Fold these 4 entries.
Entry 1:
Amino acid sequence: MILVGLTIIEAGLLAWLFVALVDLGSLLWLEIVLGILLGLIISVAHRIFFLFIMAVINNHSKPQKKFNMFYFRCVCSAFMIITRVHYKVEGLENFDYSRSYLFIGNHKSNEDFMYTTVPLKKLKLGFLAKMEVLDSFFGARFLKQIDGVPLNRSNDKEGAKSIIKVIDNIKKGTSMMIFPEGLRTDRSTNKMLEGHAGSFKVALKAKCPIVPVSMIGTQNIMKNAPFRKTKVKVIFHKPLEYEEFKDLSTIEIEEKVRNIINSVIPN
């Protein structure tokens, strides 16, 4: 909301300046319309340029710095504003912010990470992300800033190294988010499909709680934006403590977590 307010104020001042400097005779209404449009364009362009410059600067700083995370969440918030996402969050009271967790969510959009990043502002949070994220200018820089771990699916040895890095992050106090569906995602439904059971080795090795996360509506965002708003709901369920799943296989844990996630998602 702060970003929206600043953009509106800046656009208004630019529009007023345009009207004051440009004289189209009796076409005052045209001056006002052109001033508003010009003000909005310059204001939005200014925000985008600022994000670009900060991405370059932050690329050389250490991960998980407070300003890095603040900046990253500002980018996520700006994206949600531009794409007209109206989201509601439930369950933030279900976990202790002094602990580290493995968050597991259903995966229906390339931007799903944004809808957990913004509400979990009190946590150090990283992600296990597909290797292709490194091909993106912003993606490569953001992944580094938030202790993100790229996953090479085509190389089992490198993939194992990524999982070890995720486990190490959790043991050091950084909560991690994983989307086990990966490439198996079906965007025609909100329901979580059967995911990669190997993802749950992280919780067994790190002996950390698992927080199932249900996300509803994210698959519609890019289809609706920017002309129609999209309602998104994010539900953080109560954590599954290590004692509750330590004797289960990874396949059994995956099924248990998937059932919890799908329990609140409509067909």
Entry 2:
Amino acid sequence: MILFHDFRRALALAGLGLLSLAAPASAQDLVATGTLTFDHFAAPTGGVHMPAAYAGLRWDNSDWHAMSVASNPANTFLALSGTAATLAGEGGQNFYFDGAAFWSRRGLDANGSFYFYLMRDGVVVYDGRNDPNGRQVFDATPRRFVPNYYGSVDYVAIVFTQGGGDWDHLAMDDVKLRSLADGTLLRPFSLLTVPFSFSGSRTSTTFNAATGVYSATFSGKGDSSLAGRVSGTLTFSVDYRLQGGAAFVTGGRWSLVTTSRDRPPFTASGAIAAGPVLAANLNGTLAPGSIDVRMNFGDPTWPVSALFNLPMDAKGRVKGSYSLTYPYIP
């Protein structure tokens, strides 16, 4: 699955030069490709609220303030005065958000954390609170943080789960953006299928009496020597209705967290398609047979899917192989 991460990185070949920010962007300006440094503001040490429209983004609903410090007045950055830490595309424009530098302005107790929250066309496409690797821990040293999501967005927010105690010392600078035009593919998609092996077991079976739906949860390890020695933990739940000796799949969920020796971890999730029929016992547990399900990627703009056909024994152990199909530029 890490190959999808590499594919998305390949789209970033367009250079990220400094934006020319001589004046605030008008309502007609597009989100530009570049790095927002905010240094031309020459902001006071007490801070000044960001203008309503700037660099193709809306800032009027945010609590971001441009400010500087007395020891370095030429360096302007953004600081929060409240928990509304948002960036939104002017007029709902889509753009790619390639992260920003974050740090704490406190000398003492400089640690804190936040989560990225991304939307496109009114739909949440990434919520870091649902990502095992989504917590972004910052300290007094500026570091670049990038959400574990690589599609286009029109809304970027930062959320806090500590009762708001970390927002009042968070600083941000060097915001990297790419316009949708600069991020589009130069060549059409082709689909590449990579085989993965999987070994795991059924960890639980639950029943919802209100809906008559069972849910069998599996967890295990997936590996692919053809994908840069990528390994990961795959967890999926198959929802099904019992009818005689068969279980009719009504849906389900899956998540995959991959690791590699030379690449950062990558997390993906999505839904399991309805339709397949599985063998089942009279008590509702799945019977020995095969798990035949299709995983669909959570972001519909990326046609990523995986087809399972894995044999399962009487103890719920599953071992076999599946294929992962993902977009690729040859």
Entry 3:
Amino acid sequence: MTTATAKSVSPTSPSSALTKFVVASRYMPVYLAMILLIIVSSIWVPETLSGVALSAIAPFGALLAITALGQMLVIMTGGIDLSTPGTLTLAAMIMAGVGQQSDGRIGLSILTAIGVAALIGLVNGILIGGLKLNALIVTLATGQIVVGIVSRYVRTFPVQSAVPRGFSDWTATRILGVSPIFWIGVAVTMFFVVGLRYTSVGRRFQIVGANPVSANVMGVRVVANQILVYVVASVLYAVAGVALAGLLRNPGVNIGSPYLLGPIAAVVIGGASLTGGLASPFSTFVAALFLTGLNQMMLALGLATSLQFLVFGLVIIGGMLISGDRIIKGVEQVLRERRKPDRTKPDRNDDSLEDASSHG
């Protein structure tokens, strides 16, 4: 094999490294934002970076990450899910209603919450993936239906009923100084990191999101994947709802409200492609921690609720402006400009032709 040929097939060739750089660049803003948040917090509110403060907000960051991972899977198929708050709230209320404050009913409560959530996801999946209805409208409608079901369901047991004490005590324990809820979030994130990158199922799923037509030609069951993703997403919302109920002990009917835009913001800031296909579970996890830390910093600064909403909205808009798709286009434009030949310099071939004609 010649040297030129070896270079062309080398896995570390410049073109391969350049491709990796372009793909990785879409995920850089979230890490820069996290560094900036740490710097600002250390200057203005250093108490938010103490061990006690970090261990207190870590489980809530993990809960946002778990819901964001579900939203990420949906967005990877080119869809969106607005039924998150209702599904999460229903799962939390099931923990209180089915649990009946009895430790012996913890397992039944969790299974019921996950099963009901999976059913909600199945309905979304069939309507969107099977019947090809608009994901925004369908999930908004099912979300409202679920909210109505929650309002009706909570009348069947005492208001502000607590979840089983054994479960709430478990969420309050510490593993390496942090609630086990945080480590569940880490485990779920690592599961999707490995699953999407290193398994054939995960790679096929990304193909479905990036180009469903090509995936269908390749024999991938596109509709089945689209239905399954809404089921998995709803199960993740239920997991977050169950865990949140344990942390709060007495869940209310409005606990899911912050999880409408939060997960979407985390996915966008995490660099996911809004047209489907590309996303990073780990970057999404970091984005969720960033948003949780930002919220904690604003609370520590004593900002009015209106200003908190303002800052949060600006962050979401900023995430859209520097989304992964825009970064990719910007990097590709810069590379194209650099590859253009410089017309101000004479072409060596033209010079040689002129010399040859003068001597002819």
Entry 4:
Amino acid sequence: MHDRIALMLSQARRVVSAGGAMLCAAVLMVAGTVSAAPTQQGALVDVGLVVFDPGIPADQSTHSKRGIFPEIRKAEAKYMPVVLRQVLIESGDWGVVRVLPEVLDSSELLVTGTLLQSDGLRLQLQINARDASGVEWLNQVYSGSTRSADYPVSLPGDPYLELYQQIADDLAAVLRQKSAKQLATIRDIALMRYAIQLAPTVFGSYLTQTPEGQYVLVRFPAEGDPMLARVVRIRNQEYLFIDTVDEQYEHLSEQMAPTYNLWRQYSAEQAIYQGEYQQRVAGRSSQGRRGSFTALEQSYNTYKWSKIHEQDLVELALGFNNEVAPTVMDVSGAVVQLTGTLDTQYSEWRSILQRIFMLETGLVPAS
């Protein structure tokens, strides 16, 4: 069995080393003609899944005791939204579901999460969801645990699939309580919030905020409004880049899955053995009977393979977090190449789009 696992790890390392070549530059051509009537584009709500907060304590001395490996946690924080995204897509309840490098306040439904605990035995996530109007749909801690039968994991499965399904079911339950008019209003508010970020002097009066911080739609621009058409075009350009980012997250997650699941399996076995060991220590007789050689050998082997997976996964996580291909974007006839991490590329692209809007309209975006 160990020989088979060693072979799988070797294959996973080759995938990682080839990752940079596989992530070829993406070229996106941006259409110039779009509709300015968002409520007529479809009845489904789009979802933005922000890369999770890895939940890494600032006190580094606590990491080892709590089984936290920062680089792995950072990779998990990008891996898990991809799994949730797939569950939401397969439900058929939503419009476009995207993984976002950072918070996009103008999302129709924005879902954020924090990793509270993550190992091969237990997963605990704090999930929050708010729509564009500021109404909270979800604010809950979700917990899942695994059994020995959950391993080895058959890809593309996940040992915590029931947890993700529960999140999707809870979001769908809130969705079903909304009328078609309420959902249309949420979409319109999302567009207006984006418009206000670009042109606060033009669109600032279209929304108002309640003392509780929720957004209320006062009015909506007339159909065919040229300024709104520019806003929609800029937003669509931003979404095209996000879709490119989303594809890269998915690709990197596929690369990570085989080694990650092996690491979780051995991490779970190590945790189970440690728990059983503590029980044996507590139940020892006064003669101090020690464990058998077989038990000690099992402990050593489990620890050894856990460390091998940990080392490989840290190496893989570094690639997930840092190794990103340049993205080439074509906007208004000008080709722009973005480099750096996905977060950096996204921030740079948003800045470019805001400058384009300012040059076209003479208006200064909100700071």
